[in-house]
Input
Amino acid sequence: MTPMASPLLHAGSAAICLAWVALILLAGRGRTAVMLALAGLAAGGWLAAVALWPEKPLSGPAAVLEVLRSATWCAVLLWLARRTGNGWSARQLAGFSAATLALTLMGLAALLPGVPEIPTLGSPGLLARLGLALLVLLVAENLYRNAEEGTRWHVVLPCIALGLLAAFDVLLHADAALARAYSPALLDGRAAIAALALPLLVIAAVRDRRWRRDPPVSRQAVFHGATLILAGTFLLGVGAAGEALRHLGADWSRAAQVSLLAGGVMVLALAVASRSMRSRLRGRVVDHFFSARFDYRREWLRCVATLSADGADPQERAIRAVADPVDSPAGLLLLREPGEALLRWAGSWNRPAHSLDLPGDHPLLAALADGERIATSLPADLTASAGPLWLAVPLCHHRDGLMGVVLLAPPRAPFTLDGEVFDLLRATGREVAMFLAERLAAERLHDQRGLQDYARRFAFVAHDVKTVASQLSLLHANAAHHMDDPEFQADLLTTVGAAAARISTLVARLRQPEAEETASSVAPAERLRAIAAGLGHEVEICDQGAAQCRLPIAPARFDAALRHLLDNAAEASPPGASVCVTLRQEATRVVLDITDRGPGMSAEFVRDTLFRPLISGRAGGSGIGAWQARDLLRGAGGDLAVISAPGAGTTMRVTLPCEERPLVREAAA
Output
């Protein structure tokens, strides 16, 4: 015998469910609210039928509505699954839909007159109801499990509400199959659980108002499409007004129509050219089509393009990168020097230069909270001295902490600030901080390289000055004995003049090293003879066919390199032994072999010591000559090699690229 249900409990639950359905329609919107309301309405209709026929809660109209209720719940969940599309294929949706339809028809057929109502597993009616309940529970579980993080928040409540009701139906029918009778307590419990579960659908409908799926077009397409629609509407209105005036029959109607059209075109042109108008259009029309206020891919590309642009001042680019996302037309940049607490003015955009300094205890720095917050209420002293200001965006570096602040002017059009805007500004501020830190590091590296280059040139000059000083010292030592000799006096004047000229050249080279590059090539044989004439030691020059070549090296560099090598060869040679210089051409290069008859050098010394700066193998040496000579030659595309052995002398082999000297032929008389 079928137990009797409580009519009062089911009637009250039905009324509560219908009230929830009304709230769903009021709080929700679109198809989602309709589908959730349909699920609640199916539950309310079933409860009302049980309240009207409490003696037949499992047969008659109540049974029909129960089967349709479960089928409706399954259909609602399948619609949500199709809407999200996460992990649901068309084949799966079709399979679940076919199973729902089959079980629904089976449950309705079991309620036909003459079909026995026996609560056993062999009963078609019980199998259909139990199968529908299990199907609802299965779809709810799969919908929740396959939903992505972004959509799960919107489907979790319908899954819980309908899955809970279906699970209770499974418990009811499974208990009836085992006991061969339905429990009155479980029958009445379904009504109370339905009234308690439907508020979850109301909350789901409210949540769905925040679920705005982005259209499959870009923001630019939506922006320009909305602009064209508004422009077309405006032009149609202007045209209609002009046509109405024309039909009035007045003499000035045609002129008024043309004037309205011209004015409309002018207004549209002004709107297109005005950034404030575009900002208003984007804020009032375009942003409503998207779930996020910003196209983050576009914002990232715009930030990178702004920071890497050529021509603009880097400080101005940094301000623009922060100002563009919020449509600010101007701003100031304050930066902190390393090791200082004071923020100093570093640049401005669309604002005049301003000597604005913020001490470490300024209220603005406290409002920024070490770069974690964006200040929207700026102190009065800032606005009084720097003009209208709107936001203070911190530039927080991952290593240096708060390295600066960008102060932005009010936007062109009203701009709503929310958490998404603040997150974007904080991320942009970190990117700008890294950009400024890298530029600062690059500038420091450039300065250090300049100092290193200056130190290298100074070492070269010091070595050359040492050579000149040695010559003057030798001249001074001989002056006491040969001062009365007219020939010595002439040599003295020549040597002192040459030393003064060389020192002047060295000082100019130290100040402006590029000045020595004015002459781009030299004739090697001629330069060698000039250098050998002033060496003070016998030099034998053997030219083996390099007379037609010119070397692509500045004369000052060539002279400095060769003079060092010849001086070293002369010092290493025994008294009376000459230095031999062989000059020849090999393919496209010129080879100069400078050979002395000195003690020679070991392979270990050449490898480990000879070309190391500030390390010399002889007493009183500076360790600069060989290193400088090789550096100068390599700078001109050449090289310096050493051929030496202990007791066998040394050959310094210079190789440089050759430029063929054009042959000049005299014209026949």
User: Anything to note?
Assistant: DSSP finds 20 helices and twelve strands in the chain. The domain at 7-208 is CATH 1.20.1070 (Rhopdopsin 7-helix transmembrane proteins).
